[in-house]
Amino acid sequence: MRFTFTEEQEDIRAAVREFCEKEFDPELARELDKREEFPWDLYRKACKLGFIGIHFPEEYGGGGYGYVEAAIVAEEMCRADSTLGTALILADIGCDVILHFGTEEQKERYLSLVAGGRGLSAIALTEPARGSDLSARLDTRAVRDGDEWVINGVKTLITNAPVASFFITLCQTDMAVEPPYRGQTLFIVERDTPGLDVTKIGDKMGIRASLTGEVSYSDVRVPDDAIVGQLNKGFYHALAFLDESRVEIAAHAVGIAQGALDRALKYAKEREAFGRKLIEHQAIAHKLAEMATKIEAARLLVYKAAWALDQGKLDPALSSMCKTLAGRIAVEVCDEAVQILGGYGYVGDYDVERYYRDAKITEIYEGTKEIQLNTIAKFLAKTK
Fold first, then answer.
1. 76, 248, 363, 366: which is the annotated catalytic residue?
2. Which pLDDT belongs to residue 185?
3. Which one of 34, 47, 279, 283 is separated from 311 by 20 to 30 angstroms, measured CA to CA?
4. Is the peptide bond preceding residue 179 cis, with omega within 30 degrees of 0?
5. Measured between alpha carbons, how far is 319 from 322 in angstroms, rounded to an integer?
6. Is 108 exposed, middle or buried (0-12, 13-18, 19+ CB in 10 A)?
7. Residues forming beta bridges with residue 214, ordered by sequence position
8. Catalytic: 366?
9. How many domains are contained in the chain?
């Protein structure tokens, strides 16, 4: 049993950290947070260094690494800056569906597009009336018309929607089958397809440089070769994607927590109160000790889950466990970081205010913490 990274993995972590130290400007992060704009220049620089799509095969523009390396990138970037890091690690969201279930043509076209810095992806699963319940009969439907499919419906709260080049869209393709999730299919819809319209969702609590939008489909026509994976197997493909992406989101949460701890610790070592450094007060020292302990526990679970994926062991319960724990700890640690900084922690000039806002989403997207607990409980019930 090993609890250390390989030399190559350590080199990747050092390279990501060096990139962030050089390129991540706190003022830029605050400005993009206010303007709600995506960091295009940083994205393209990260692509050139191979950090975006690091787990894609090399023939599709990736680094040829695995999920452990992807988790390293996510943790380090979000540790360096929660706002910029989140935007970058979500640049390839949904691409794992194409990686695992797509055709060679789809992989060559879309994975290389994202990893090459030429366009972002989006995966459109959530509907206004459905939320996290993908098993219901979807309102977004695709009906065959000759050798094409006609899509109508609305998807909401879609990451990257305002800036994405294409949308991996889950549709109901069999309207009569029971249960309805057995009749769902994934389609790739390119941004310039007639009938597709995107509305930006603004004024979010956090992750404001990672843009979110609503996508509407009005008689959108796509060919048969736009299908990802098998017809009427989209629900299962989407679940497999979520089980993997939850691990990256958990690493993202660990990074945010560690970044908040870094800043709170630095402040506690510098700030004086009642004639002593804050860290010399037991109440503050104990907060910091508990924060560090929680982060380490979450980190171990995250990398165990990432390692399992690299061994070909897709474990939905483990993925849900690591996301549940890491998301909760990110929120708790950021809360304590704000508390340690006191009034300054509540002010936007200090990073922990932004980290706190950015942390909360890790308990919501890729399945809420309640959905994760349902998944864990389901698997526990099957355990003998």
1. 366
2. 98
3. 47
4. yes
5. 5
6. middle
7. 199
8. yes
9. 3
The burial class, CB within 10 Å (0-12 / 13-18 / 19+), for 271 is middle
Question: Residue 214, SS3?
Answer: strand
Are residues 357 and 311 both part of a single domain?
yes
Distance CA 363, CA 352 (A): 18
19 touches 48 (CB < 8 A): no
Count CA atoms within 13 Å of residue 217 on its CB side. Answer: 32
CA-to-CA distance for 146 and 107, rounded, in angstroms?
26
Pairing of the two strands 164-172 and 120-124: parallel
Residue 199's DSSP bridge partners are 214
CA distance linking residue 168 with residue 124, whole number of Å: 6
Query: Is 267 inside any structural domain?
Result: yes
Q: Is 209 part of any domain?
A: yes
* Sequence-separated (6 or more) residues with CB below 8 Å from residue 291: 257, 260, 261, 264, 332, 333, 336, 337
Digit-coded pLDDT (tens) for 289-304? 999 999 999 999 999 9
Please indicate, yes or no, whether residues 225 and 247 belong to a single structural domain of this protein: no
Residues 228 and 272 in one domain: no
Per residue in 154-212, pLDDT (tens digit) is 999 999 999 999 999 999 999 999 999 999 999 999 999 999 999 999 999 999 999 99
CB 125 within 8 A of CB 234: no
The parent domain of residue 212 ranges over: 120-235
Question: Is the CA virtual torsion 292, 307, 113, 138 positive or negative?
Answer: negative
